[in-house]
Amino acid sequence: MGLLVNGQWQDKWYDTDSSNGKFEREAAQLRHWITADGSAGITGEAGFKAQANRYHLYVSLACPWAHRTLIFRALKGLQDLITVSVVSPDMLDSGWAFDTQNHSTGDALFNSNYLHQVYTKNNPEYSGRVTVPVLWDKKLNKIVSNESADIIRMFNSAFNELTSNNDDYYPEALQPKIDELNALIYPNINNGVYRTGFATTQDAYEEAFNDVFKALDTVEGILSKQRYLATNELTEADWRLFTTLIRFDSVYVGHFKCNLRTIESYPALNGYLRELYQVKGVAETVDFYHIKRHYYFSHTMINPTQVVPNGPSVDYLSDHGRNV
Ligand SMILES: N[C@@H](CCC(=O)N[C@@H](CS)C(=O)NCC(=O)O)C(=O)O
């Protein structure tokens, strides 16, 4: 685990000393947008037109943010248009690395050893954390974006003319509602589990822990009355919650000490999680080997023995029973 400083790799764990033991996630820096006609998006420069076989996605199968992008690639039928490289689940002294074991693919574009080499190909002077996902432009040879929230919105609409898939997970009429749900779920659940697990003081841990379970109670309440979070159709808000829920019982309960309850113990969330897992194309994006191996083996500050637990045994293919 580390970061680039003026293009040089430095091995450093997150600094929580300056924030009273609290973990603060660095904002993504590279935020151009692919658009249907190549015009500029909400941020960044123009020039990234939606085209087949032009863009490449670097992901970790363990990472919940990268997982969102793989789900949208599947839901929107982009598998043949956008190629993918999968990093090793083991993120040690040199950060995300490439190998070709256990469903990792190696770096299909440059055959690099480490993801930080892809960041410095884009900018030899880059300073910042080296995170997944990364969306790379094979034509301009540069990074389009390293922000998953933006990448899923590009996938949601920019390639529609090429795929004829017009499914819309961020429909205009629901945008305020989805934004409101994201504002609850991102800090308290998606990042809340990290704030809990990476806290280095009791107070910071307890604050984050309470945020996680309070927000889970809120979404449980919504889902006990309504099929999905925003409405009775699936939206971006559901997929953003899904990637945390699917990791919760396997990793966050134990490794991140989010152990008040499991997702299996919430009646609505339990069925909802299974239902989303069973949506066509989604189960193939979930890799429990990478998920468990990454967290338990890579975060040696939390789990110095690097022993990866065997359980739990959960059958996500069992009947979801959702009919609210
Ligand atoms: N804002 C980014 C966050 C991505 C992120 O933090 N990814 C984690 C993996 S789950 C990472 O690569 N961490 C490496 C590090 O912080 O050094 C996004 O959502 O795309």
Automatic annotation (TrEMBL):
UniProt keyword terms in alphabetical order: Oxidoreductase
Domain GST C-terminal: 171-298
GO molecular function, one term: oxidoreductase activity
Cited InterPro entries: Glutathione-S-Trfase_C-like, Glutathione-S-Trfase_C_sf, Glutathione_S-Trfase, Glutathione_S-Trfase_N, GST_Omega-like_C, GST_Omega/GSH, Thioredoxin-like_sf
PROSITE patterns to which the protein is assigned, alphabetical: GST_CTER (PS50405)
Name of this protein: Glutathione S-transferase family protein
Gene3D superfamilies: 1.20.1050.10, Glutaredoxin
